[in-house]
Amino acid sequence: MSTFLGMPAHAPRGVGGLHGDEPFPAAARRALADSQLRRNIGNATSTIRAKRAAVVGEVPDWEELRLAGEAIKAAVMARLDVHLERLEQEVTARGGVVHWARDATEANRIVTDLVRATGSDEAVKVKSMATQEIGLNEALEAAGIAAVETDLAELIVQLGHDQPSHILVPAIHRNRSEIREIFLREMPDAPADLTDDPAALAAAARAHLRRKFLSARVAISGANFAVAETGTLLVVESEGNGRMCLTLPQTLITVMGIEKLVPTWTDLEVFLQLLPRSSTGERMNPYTSAWTGVTPGDGPQEFHLVLLDNGRTAALADPVGRSALHCIRCSACLNVCPVYQRTGGHAYGSVYPGPIGAVLTPQLTGVEENPSLPYASSLCGACFDACPVRIDIPGLLVHLRAQHTEQQRERHMLPTAEAAAMSVASWVMADPRRFARAEKAARAARLLANRQGRLTTLPPPLSGWSSSRDAPAPPRETFREWWARTRGGRS
Amino acid sequence: MRVALFVTCLADALFPQVGRATVALLERLGHEVVFPAGQTCCGQMHVNTGYQRDALPLIRRHVASFQGYDAVVAPSGSCVGCVRHQHEMVARRFDRDRLADQAAAVAARTYELSEFLVDVLRVTDVGAYFPHRVTYHPTCHSLRMLRVGDKPLRLLRNVRGIDLTELPEADECCGFGGTFSVKNPDTSTAMLADKMRNVLATGAEVVSAGDSSCLMHIGGGLSRLRAGARTLHLAEILATTEDGAR
Known about the structure:
The complex is a heterodimer of chains A (about 500) and B (about 250). With about 500 residues, chain A is an alpha/beta fold. Among the domains of chain A are: about 75-315, 3-Layer(aba) Sandwich (Rossmann fold), CATH 3.40.50; about 435-485, no CATH class. Chain A has helices at about 25-30, 35-55, 60-80, 80-95, 105-120, 130-135, 135-140, 150-160, 175-185, 200-215, 240-245, 265-280, 310-315, 330-335, 340-345, 355-365, 380-385, 395-410, 415-430, 430-440, 465, 480-485; strands spanning about 95-100, 120-125, 145-150, 220, 225, 230-235, 250-255, 260, 285-290, 300-310, 455, 470. Chain A is globular, with a radius of gyration of 26 Å. By secondary structure, chain B is of the alpha/beta class. Chain B folds into two domains: about 1-120, no CATH class; about 135-240, Rossmann fold, CATH 3.40.50. In chain B, strands 2-1-3-4 form a four-stranded parallel β-sheet, with helices on both faces. Chain B is globular, with a radius of gyration of 18 Å. The interface between A and B is large, with 67 and 70 residues.
């Protein structure tokens, strides 16, 4: 007999990077006004987009790989509990310690306690979305522990007291002259004659980070994958800084979302083909690091795996919505999204921006906490075509929009103005006579049209349309009137 | 063939010339067109804005209007996309299984205009004449929901006198997205600005598409800017002949 433990909890408010300060349309409006940002993001996304298209195009079985990726992920979600217990068992058997974190607050406390126990007040970090999601750096800082980001782009974001704006390229909103200024201002060991040449900038960061690697006693990472059958964790990266963190310090703490595991090494084969081509547009990424428990005399001698829920079980409970958990964080959907390309990532108010963020974030927090995100898309479908695991993002957006309006309906006695308008529209259009009468009534708007037969100002909520676009005035004769007149009502 | 015209509420109410052109084109090709008078709206706006329950009566109406026809044709990729990909899903969500089955049957015989011409009627030269410089916006739902591919372009390439010029970044959204254009007007406008830039770069006098909704958006922007390019639905170009029969 099973015990009902209640509905799984969402990610809590007030901690971590899943709750924005303002609705998407307002944040987007500000972002759109920043011409430097528009240029930086437009240039960067179009470069990655072209690289991705080229390397995806050369794989003859790309569609089969996508189908395989989708099938493996769906199978993992269906038996996630079993796979997670297997993972725990294997990690433990190989000398690692597994911790279960219900949410961001719990995960931050576990990691803080683990770092404290080593006596260190500094930890080097491998680029990780999970630790961004829980706001780990801020939690460590509050405990007097300095977290040092070692991924070049994350370092730029950290030194700039900034927020990441892309899953893969967190400093995509910065160009090289901005990066030079940040380094000169914030990096004490940056050379005074630093130029904005990319090689010079990388060399300055390299010298700065090398000192951190050699002195760090604790490293904190995320994980791209965990292989349950052997208890192995994997990080896929470009720079090699992650590998420094994963191999040099005595203690390694990995924070991983519970959805990131695959059952076997054979499954991994599919994702190691899909991920680099989709994310950086490379055939293979330069560094793939895999570690299994602890090996005496080689690498970290203490390994902790923190398995993070933070709303994932709640997403898993939705048979439609759960496919957002299939995401492998490649960010291909961001680079092809016409909305993201123009607003950038900050407008989404979450560490997960772009199309996947618009379906993942509201599910982790509960859609009522991020009600504008499912609407931050024109449903153009470019994200689905780019997704290496075939997440039907447009379908999920529509699903979450329904969830949002239905929750609103349940919570409020009075419908919103929009809901009322939608009900009226439904009532009118459910009957052809009522619809024909409404068409006739709309003809009054012809009086407001200009000489070209265009309406240039519309009342709210349609004023959003007429702020930049004319609208056609209704014609003298609708189609159905023309048909009745010329065909004598023959149907 | 007897073809039921699903004119779409937008074309019925605001762009009747698109419906008339579709009728003229299909009749010229020798087919009988009927207009099931019970039709109103497919409910796409309701589904895509989150009001699936309010879409149910519209789905019921649509199914009742178009059941039993061999072919249902609409001059819209977006509305056909809703019929084909959303009607059954919404009906099932509210456990209306009988309606869902009927919706699936109607969907299986519903075609976007270019699909119907190329795949069902197997015609790519419809005998049209249109001596103007034209660029074509393929529309997101035609491309990525229906996968019509280059069918509209194959039809346009066979139009006599046409100067068809390729639209840069053609497959990118124009920013309409239904209520997206009203809920996110700034982002929508930013997308539209780039679409218009690409349209104007072609030097075309006419930008065409298979969806009145996207054309209403692009046309609304071009008109506001007095940009000197106009919009015409694919059906309107294909319906035009040398003797000016239309």
